[in-house]
Amino acid sequence: MKEAFQTKFLIRFDDINESMNWKIWDQIEYFLDSLGIKPAVAVIPKNRDDSVAKWSKNSQFESRYLDMYKKGYEICLHGYDHVYITDNPGIFGLSPRSEFAGVDPQIQREKIKKGIEILQEIGINPRCWIGPNHSYDEFTLKILKEFSFSIILDGHHRLPYERGDNLLIIPTQRWKMKAFFPGLYTVCYHHNEWNQEMLSQFKEDTKKNIERIVCIDDVINEYGGRQKTTFDYIFSTIDKKYTHTFKVGVKLLVDQFK
């Protein structure tokens, strides 16, 4: 199959909120539009996490969200308030802090419902979920299905696949456009702490890989209905170990300079 020999990148930006780093984001959005790139953007409906909201509030944030949506950006529900209330790593298992994993299902349902309503009031109907801190549980997925979500953007696997409940799982394995194996990779960016040098590096990487960049509709057309294979299980195990080792290495390096 040709998919086994291709490398594609889906661009994703996390922690979109009314008081994010709009100065950098304006430059990112202009650049993406100039190349016709339609990223996935993780919108926090009712942000209460000060660490991702240290900048001036954009009074036009709602219209900006809607403009992105109309341009074809994938506006994804990124939890509700982005506040971690458990130490449960959830299904993905990347980090032991969560807004949803291990939380009572009724509380989860209410938060998801409120988040959807906020976006719908703006004119956006989200179909894609991005779990805060990559953490959620099976109850979360069941509730998302109740609200007609069809896409989960997370996972260590190499290619997208559909679960038995028809949720399309699109993998998120990278924080830069680099892959050791062919596959579909969501490259997850956190632009709020970027400076101009980091923005320039992003532009350079994007231009270099422009022929490999896809949007979520491309992913659906290519992989919708695909079932998980044995190779996916093997790759998931390897990639999860690689990601964990990378995180531990970064932490040790950071600790040395504290």
Walk me through the structure.
- By secondary structure, this protein is an alpha/beta fold.
- The protein has one domain: TIM Barrel (Alpha-Beta Barrel).
- It contains seven helices and ten strands.
- It has helices at residues 22-35, 61-71, 105-122, 138-146, 196-208, 216-223, 230-256, and strands at residues 7-16, 40-43, 74-77, 128-129, 151-153, 161-162, 168-170, 172-174, 183-189, 213-214.
- Strands 1, 2, 3, 8, 9 and 10 form a six-stranded parallel beta sheet that branches. The chain has a four-stranded mixed beta sheet with strand order 4-5-7-6, covered by helices on one side.
- Helix 2 links the parallel strand 2 (40-43) and strand 3.
- Helix 3 (105-122) crosses helix 4.
- The protein is globular, with a radius of gyration of 18 Å.
- The N and C termini lie far apart (49 Å).
- Mean pLDDT is 89; it is low at 244-258.
Q: What fraction, in percent, of the residue positions are helical?
A: 25-40%
Q: What's the alpha carbon Rg, rounded to whole Å?
A: 18 Å
CATH architect. name:
Alpha-Beta Barrel
Low-confidence stretches: 244-258
Please identify the structural class as seen in this structure.
alpha/beta
**For this structure, what is the CATH homologous superfamily?**
Glycoside hydrolase/deacetylase
Biggest β-sheet: count, sense, barrel? Answer: 6 strands, parallel
Structure annotation, total helices: 7
Instruction: Quote the CATH topology.
Output: TIM Barrel
Whole-number count of domains: 1
Average residue-wise pLDDT:
89
Oligomer: single chain
Termini separation comes to 49 Å
What are the secondary-structure elements, in order, as H or E? EHEHEHEHEEEEEHEHH
The rough form would be described as: globular
At the first level of CATH, what is the class?
Answer: Alpha Beta
Strand-residue proportion: 15-25%
- Per DSSP E runs of 2 or more residues, the count of β-strands stands at 10
